């Protein structure tokens, strides 16, 4: 494995403590829009192996309450498992208002690319693009003004907002009913 086992380095960013999720990556200097900030490294695996690893992590999360998933879809046949210490890009946290995006090049390499100019000292982030299957298990702590409360891809936000609105209305009806009962009505 040689070079693969060396931690991913970036002239643009370094790992620091983060209020979002313990650790994160931060710009060490201003990063111009469109810059490939860091490569997301890992092991290329087929879909069957990816599903197997994903299910193991799901079982782990049910048992322990926590599991970190670093599986990236590359194409219809391959995924990339980035769950390795030498993949420092795995520490870039999710945001509902990201400053980076993951781009897959023609060689199926994943780069985190600056969506806009990023100021030195700013935390790097990208939208993880999770679906809504287990959204309740993935609360978002990004703190952005656009935060939807859960780690979900922007394409899922309208449906998520409808779900949350329905849930809130149900809770409000229940609370009103309980107030009425306790008031003796």
Features:
185 residues; alpha+beta; Beta-clip-like
Q: Secondary-structure map with pairings?
A:
Elements: E1 13-18, E2 22-27, E3 36-40, E4 43-46, H1 47-64, E5 71-73, E6 78-81, E7 93-94, E8 100-104, E9 110-114, E10 125-126, H2 157-182
Parallel strand pairs: 7-10
Antiparallel strand pairs: 1-2, 3-9, 4-6, 5-6, 8-9
Explain what the structure shows.
The structure is a single chain. This protein has 185 residues and is α+β, with helices and mostly antiparallel strands. The protein has one domain: SET domain (Beta-clip-like), CATH 2.170.270.10. A 3-stranded antiparallel sheet has the order 3-9-8, with no helix packed on it. Strand 1 and strand 2 form a beta hairpin. The longest helix is centred in the last third of the chain and has 26 residues. It starts with 12 loop residues before the first strand and ends with a helix. The model has no long low-confidence stretch (mean pLDDT 87).
